[in-house]
Design a protein that fits this description.
The chain is built from eleven helices and 14 strands.
């Protein structure tokens, strides 16, 4: 079975929570290339403001990273969206504002995939709950989702759906059906050990998502992933069921001693041991192009 490996290089955490993650453009390019050479077909990243050390949305920085990796390795590289409701994006944004950088990257021909998260979720860590430290609500209003889907259809990129709760899957499938000709969404099941959203990384939880996917979006592309999670125990079941895999320092438990390359190698070993064949970017671009 062909299995796509995605590596999420950093995420919104800053080095205070994930000390080993790349932040600068040169670091992101270097680690993206290294992970691609280990077998990753897809690279996901967030860019940071060097002056503040905090995440921001910057077209030129994203373009530099995407082009820098692709000049060396043929992989799919895609950006994030502002994490609406978080400390980095606390003020309300219009759909046009939120997707402005994604739209510019799409118009420049730089996107195969882009983040469109079909629902809102509480981000509350179990450790923060125990310390009475409040989490935050990750906002994804329907207007934002529809705007993202319209852009995806217009520019031909695949929506990368983060499925934090089962309702995300149902809403994402229902909204995708309203956009005939939309490139097929990728349903990324988000498990967690450290956050209280969704489900833990257990086989029964994966099976529940697969049953719901079969009912709502049969045949859709899917992968196992998460935040503050060690997804490795789900790699073999995912490969056996025809799914794909994401690892990396965005998804790993905070303070992981493993680097992005080490997470990539560990995932590759498990994919191959489960009988999978690593997908290439060309394989992923050849997936069904429309819903």
């Amino acid at each position: 079975m062909v299995c796509c490996l995605e590596v999420a290089l950093n995420g919104p955490w800053s080095r205070s929570r994930q000390p080993g993650m790349p932040v600068t453009v040169s670091e992101l390019v270097s680690e993206g290339i290294a992970c691609a050479r280990e077998g990753a077909a897809v690279i996901h990243l967030h860019v940071y403001d060097p002056a503040t050390g905090r995440q921001h949305e910057d077209f030129d920085a994203y373009r530099a990273v995407i082009e820098g990796i692709r000049e060396v390795e043929d992989v799919i590289v895609y950006p994030t969206l502002p994490l609406a409701g978080s400390p980095d994006a606390p003020e309300p944004m219009s759909p046009q504002q939120r997707f402005a950088v994604v739209e510019r990257l799409a118009r420049a021909g730089l996107l195969d995939w882009a983040v469109i998260d079909p629902g809102s979720a509480m981000f509350a860590g179990f450790d923060d709950i125990a310390g009475d430290v409040p989490g935050f609500l990750y906002h994804n209003p329907e207007a934002d989702i529809r705007h993202g889907l319209a852009l995806a259809r217009a520019h031909g990129f695949h929506p990368s759906y983060a499925i934090y709760e089962p309702g995300f899957l149902r809403l994402g499938a229902a909204l995708a059906a309203r956009y005939p000709g939309l490139p097929q969404p990728v349903y990324r099941f988000m498990f967690s050990d450290g956050f209280a959203f969704g489900q833990p990384p257990r086989d029964w939880a994966l099976q529940s998502y697969l049953a719901l996917l079969e009912e709502t979006a049969p045949g859709a592309m899917w992968m196992v992933a998460g935040l503050r999670v060690d997804i490795r125990p789900l790699i073999a079941p995912a490969v056996a069921a025809g799914g794909h895999v994401r690892v990396g320092l965005e998804d790993a438990p905070f303070g992981t001693p493993l680097s992005n390359v080490e997470w990539t190698r560990a995932a590759v070993d498990r994919i191959l041991a489960a009988g999978g064949r690593l997908a290439t970017a060309a394989d992923m671009r050849a997936t069904p192009n429309a819903t």
